[in-house]
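Researcher: Next entry in the queue.
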Amino acid sequence: MLAWILALSVLVSMMFVSTAFADDGKQGLTLREKFGDKTTSGYKIDFYEDNIIYYWDVLAEYADKGYQPTEGITIEIPAAENFKSSIPVDQVPIWDELGGKKGKFLIWENDVQWMEWTFEVETPGLYNIEVDYYPLVDSKSSVARDVLIDGVETFTEMKGIKFPRFFKDKGEPRINPLGDEVKPGQVEIHEWNSIRLEDVNGTYADPLMFYLSKGTHTVRFVFADQPVAFDKIRIVSPLKLPTYEEILKEYKAKGLKNASSTIKFQAEDHVVKKSDTTLVLLGNQDPTNEPYNLERIIMNSIGGWQWRYGNQEIIFEFDVEEEGLYQIALRSQQVWNDGLPSYRQIKINGEVPFEEMNCYRFPYDKDWQLITLSDADGNPYLFHLKKGKNTISLKVKLGEVGQTIADLTDDSFFLSVILQKIFLIAGAEPDVNYDYQFEKKIPDLVPNLTMLRDKLIKHSDFLLSISSKKSSIVDSLNMARNYIERILKDPDDLVRQLDGLTVAQNSMSSAILSLQQQPLTLDYIYVANPDEKLVNKKSNVFQKLIVTWENFLRSFRVDYDNVGGVMEGDYEVIKVWISRGREWSEAIKAMVDEQFTEQSNIAVSMNVLPASQLNAGAVNVLLLSMHSGTAPDVGLGVAASSPVEFAIRDAVVDLSKFDDFDEVASRFLPQLMVPFQYRGGYYAVPETMNFKLMFYRADIVQEMNLKIPNTWEELCLDTLPELYRNNMQFAFGADFTPFLFQSGASYYNEAGTKSALDTPEAYNAFLKYTSLYTTYGMPAVQESFYTKIRSGQMPMGISSYPFYIQLATAAPELKGKWGVAPVPGTMKEDGTIDRSIGGIIDTAGIIVSQSTKQEAAWEFLKWWTSRDVQIDFGNEIESLIGAEAKWNSANLDAFRNMGWQREHLAVIEEQWKWYKEIPIVLGGYFTSRHMVNAWTDVVLEDVTPREALEEAVKQINKELRVKQEEYGVNAAEEEARVAAEKQKQKGSE
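Model: Structure for this entry, 989 residues:
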């Protein structure tokens, strides 16, 4: 029997080799022909319970089992005593003093994977976990840890729990050259803080509760991000908030009286701390805002769109002249949620005063509102304030919509499972004229679609009940419901309505993402005598017309292509052109004025250009500006293929001439510099980079017991047959580069004067590449991987950074259900797997050769590509636009600190080891075109791989010669020069 197994194994291996390297790549049957389109391997998709357990589920389980919160219990655990660690405990630093506090403090640095403590519980029940912590290094990122109780992650919200940092403004707003106020920078407040562990998204108003039985337990924290010091860990009884009715009785028992005074303070001027550097001052131009200036922008509010993510907190400090009971009113603006309210947890002097403040609703309105904190009947709540300094804090919570978000997430995933079952029967390309008998083969299809429709109706009705107008979010849910109803009316026509189910899923995801955002802006706050009638000021039509007219006149005075003007003073001034959106440019300019100019005494005049306007092309803005004598000193956002094109024309500076170039270049992957190299020089530095990984649906891979392929052979022989048996596909956009590089071949000779695709290694790589389509059934026309991975039709595939962001931000139902792995590679003789892949460099920064301020321009590029600046910019742009604008910095240290999932970052770093870049050569832009033509000839036109590749090489070399002649490059001399340099370098070694 063993002999038969070994023989079969050898035969299968020979089949792959013979088909992948046969002369025409067409021998034998395809996998689809061998296995058929409608064959299934027995993989059953049940409407199984989601394998991710949410805290909502656990709370319901607590209630079912009768678990109750304990009362009045505190179990204190000194963090620096009796702990276990992933490293020997004697190697864990213990400090005696930190942050002005003395004691024994455990110092948890980045090299420690986990820490664990043991404790005893006498009274079984529900507990919170409270931690005293101190962030150790300056960073904009929160400290984060996963939590395990007795070695178990009870619910998914135990992952990535954050220990927030707090920040304050760095001084007063500055005045820019246009006369406008500019928000100040942010500095971290270094202090000890305490937190009861809470979910990272602010879904639940209360801290997380954990059930602990009587006996011995362990709590383990697992490193996720940032070093930290721990003092005490406490297992404590949950806080029981009184109702307002109960607190009124307490006021009366204490003899507290209504205050007689009223104060009003500007919210933006009284911020003492905030949990996020993006919670900055804003300049709102409503004429009733305080303060207001018609002719210039002044900072007169705080919050806004940036203040929308769960657990973001702003704390305000104010003085009152007498102790007593006050009403509190906040002038606020909430215009973003399209009819739905935003929610805030409100604390007075660090504590939620009563239950009604645990999650307070701020309604939507197109105008500014004066929101007096009141009950449902409009009766103001009274708050006890002591004489002197007091604080009020507002913290983002998801409030009533939290449960709706959780339910919709489950519903969207449920629809994904329905789609999987349908496509398992019908295949990736269903025939609309074929009767698939879905109702017979999926007996619970109609009942489940009916249940899903009813749940969507329930969600819509609830959202309408809390909305001040019909919301587009409700419209999205109604659209999803309508698509499902069409199918329920005529189930036999389901095959024609499949696109509608995909649209329904997209609509549900859109609703989830919108509901998770809770923005709010504050102007000023009243702390008032309860008997005083507070009036909101609203701007009238006449005032608005004046503002509109002034803005119109201002448009003639201000150059809006120039961002923020130029700082006045004794500065050297450089011109920077940036080919990005205005939000990106304004964020960069604010950082330049705040940091770079202050540090370097170099001011920057920055202009915004439309996307791609700084790229090499037939009509190029940069080259035109050089001819007219108006060229900038620096260009940002330049496509990676352009610097060498400019260098050929002597339009950009060789940056390697600067003494500290090597130090700057060390910030990046070495291969990222390859596309900027020309004749021994380097003509750009990287700004952003892409990455390519294999993505997979972890839930489907687990259900199908699929192996993640390590090599192309494993993909073709193991993974693809199993996918095809289940009417699934693998996503792979045509890309020859990994096969070429993994074979040890190159696109060009070392001098870049000829194509190197005429080697045996290159031919074998091309044969292997095209056989994916001709022999192994890879679809020649790729449909949307994003859509197909959500529906389960393509549970695995190779894609890049934009796909990663799309999956992470726009498919909430798949959170925790997908993973990444390195791309498949080629097994080498020594047993290693070569995973080489190319094409990750994205954009770059250049210095224009006409610049007379090249040293200053270089200082700017060094500053801009530095670690801390890139991290700050990434945080800022993500807060302004959203997670979908996550900054893909080319600076390695900055990239690592952009808030990636730890498991994903480990895969990205592993793939970094194998990245190679394609050199840019004269005429090289034709190479990709001819390789696409060669692929088309083989896959679609039945041309043999050898013929197609030979023709491609012929045409590539022809184009290279044309460009070499055009620019006076002698190929033989260039090859001799490169050979001499190589020999010289070899001799020096």
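Model: Residues 1-19, 21-49 have pLDDT under 50 and may be disordered.
Researcher: Noted, moving on.
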